[in-house]
Amino acid sequence: MFVRSVLSSYSKLLTGAALAFAAISLGGCNEIAAEKAVPGRPVLVATVKYEASSPERSFVGTIRPRVEADMGFRVPGKVAKRLVEVGQTVDIGQPLATLDEVDLKLQAEQAEAEFRAATGVLAQAAANEQRAKDLRAKGWTTDAQMDSARAAADEARARLNRGERSVELTKNSLSYATLVADTRGVVTATLIEPGQVVANGQAAIRVARFGEKEAVVAIPETLVGRAKDGVASVTLWSEPNKKYAARLREIAPSADPATRTYLAKFSIPEADEKVSLGMTATLTLGDPVTERVARLPLSALYNQGGDPSLYVVDDNGSIALKPVKVKSYDSDNVVIAGGVDEGAKVVMLGVQKLDPAQKVRVVSALSF
Questions:
Q1: SS3 for 77?
Q2: Same domain, 242 and 270
Q3: Closest CA to 69 of 229, 184, 155
Q4: CB 198 within 8 A of CB 73
Q5: pLDDT tens digits for 279-317?
Q6: What are the backbone angles phi and psi of residue 185, rounded to the nearest 5°?
Q7: 292 and 341 Cβ atoms separated by less than 8 Å
């Protein structure tokens, strides 16, 4: 019994020891597996983004028509009707407004009466002239009488000519009582109302012609040179993702005395129907030819007495040291002109402690 008890105790001891050894073995395996599962050295990276060395400048502007004219009556009078409203599209020859024609018709009738009277006077004067010529040929009249008849006939002809011109002018004036559009466009302002008395040439209807549209902006005097020589583009606030090429058409010769800015007009040759008059737009100005550079933190630059370099991280966590072309240094950044590709990920911190043979783990990525 004693031997059996001892053997049983020894068997339990061996079993416990085996279990303990197994536990220790499993723990060691777990630690090894955990060590293998742990990725490489954590690093903070920045994404390389190239942009123009001279930053673009943006200005808020308004879409306007290239040609916008104030149309008015060519004769004075009282407005009888206004036939269009703001925003209405008009065609060539379409009536826009009319004047009261009573006085103009009376003037036309008066001119007709004067013309008929001049016609009768000329017939009588011409007959007298012919009789005087006949009598003078026979020697029955004097030269003075002949000259008088000829002068009377010439005056009658001039009077008839004046009557003809008067009839034509009154007809034109009567036609001017109707204001018509001389081009296709859209009405942007109505400056008259029925019953209003207007003078000849007074602005009545403002029409913006269909055709080229432009963006009107105020340019500060420090950027006038870039506005003349730079590359311009226009985006609408309603469609910020679509760009329209623009070119400078006109710039004011002098600055505004209050704002000290120059009014500039940029034409938009490729403007479509989405570019409506009065819309708010953003005009962007850039240099015509400029070097593209990338700005990175100074801590990303690796330099051990050789060429300045950057550690580039690939998708597998491998790093490679690539020399770069440094253009300039800022207070906190380094400006590079080449050496790494657009979108490459470079290590930002701790580059002096990295080994190209080791693996790294990206913990964050920033765009510069």
A1: strand
A2: yes
A3: 184
A4: yes
A5: 999 999 887 666 678 888 888 888 877 788 888 888 888
A6: -175, -165
A7: no
Strands of 360-367's sheet in order across = 319-323, 309-313, 345-347, 41-47, 360-367
Query: Residue 246, Cβ neighbours under 10 Å: how many?
Result: 25
CB contact set of 166 (below 8 Å; sequence gap of 6+) = 111, 114, 115
204 with 215, same domain?
A: no
Residue type, 102: V
First and final C-alpha spacing in the chain? 84
> Mean pLDDT of all residues in the chain?
83
Helix-then-strand count for the chain, H and E: 4, 23
CA distance 283 to 215: 8
282: left (phi over 0), alpha (psi -120 to 50) or beta: beta
φ, ψ of residue 332 to 5 degrees: the values are -120, -10
Instruction: Give the domain CATH number at 230.
Output: 2.40.30.170
Q: Left if phi > 0, otherwise alpha if psi is -120 to 50, otherwise beta: which for 108?
A: alpha
Closest CA to 97 of 24, 181, 223: 181
User: What sign results for the dihedral spanned by CA atoms 360, 366, 367, 368?
Assistant: negative
Type and span of the H or E element at 116: helix 102-138
Of 175, 197, 229, which residue is a domain's last?
175
Q: How many domains does the chain have?
A: 4
134-173 per-position pLDDT tens digit: 888 888 878 888 889 889 989 999 999 999 999 999 999 9
- Radius of gyration of the chain from its Cα atoms, rounded to whole angstroms: 47
Residue 56 is classified by DSSP as P
Of 338, 321, 323, 329, nearest to 297 (Cα)? Answer: 329
**In whole angstroms, what is the distance from residue 238 CA to residue 110 CA?**
59
Compute φ and ψ for 210, nearest 5 degrees.
Answer: -70, 140
Angle at which helix 143-175 crosses helix 102-138, to 10 degrees, equals 160
Contacts of 230 (CB under 8 A, 6+ apart): 285, 286, 287, 288
In the sheet that holds 178-180, the strands lie side by side as 178-180, 95-99, 77-82, 197-198
Q: Are strands 292-297 and 345-347 parallel, antiparallel or unpaired?
A: unpaired
